[in-house]
Amino acid sequence: MWITIAFLGILLLLDQVSKYLTELFLVEGKVVQGIPYVLSFTKVYNTGAAWSILDNSTWILFVISLVATGILIYFITKNDWKKKKCYSVAITLMLAGAAGNLIDRGCSLIYPQGRMGVVDMLILEPLDQLWVRIFGSSFPIFNVADACLVIGIVFLAIEVLFFQERREKRQ
User: Fold this and answer.
1) Which residue among 55, 80, 104, 120 is the active-site one?
2) Can you give the residue ranges of every domain in the chain?
3) Residue 120: active-site member
4) Comparing C-alpha atoms, which of 171, 5, 13, 14 is closest to residue 84?
5) How does pLDDT run across 56-102, given as a tens digit for each residue?
6) Calpha distance 141→147 (Å, rounded)
7) Given 15, 55, 128, 146, which residue is catalytic?
8) How far apart are CA 20 and CA 114, in angstroms?
């Protein structure tokens, strides 16, 4: 459990510090190159979910994030890092992502003059270029919490596809 708490704390800190620094140093809509042809930064406020799904539905997304965070906390408390490492990493990443965006949505509701939504700042250049060529629009700008959610879901898929059945056969 201590591994989960430490890992979660680091991820949440990284998410919130990156959002704070984005608000402090970046101008909304202006793109700053980080690693040429790989990573750029900008400041965007997202009042919806990915691809602006449920745009301007902060209350609904807050409740969804709150429920998801509660469910993920439940799964973490029932987890054993020693037996399920990939699963543990997946659930912790997903919890960090859900909680990170929950914090932003909560801040938007409590203090609407402050954050105007979830703070997004990361642009992956290769993915963005590919997306433009295929779909004709830019790939969504995202944040550390979003990345944690996506990577956590990938780890969970790997766990289910490759490890879960083997572990069950051994028991």
Assistant:
1) 120
2) 2-170
3) yes
4) 171
5) 788 899 999 999 999 999 999 988 888 888 899 999 999 999 999 99
6) 11
7) 146
8) 12
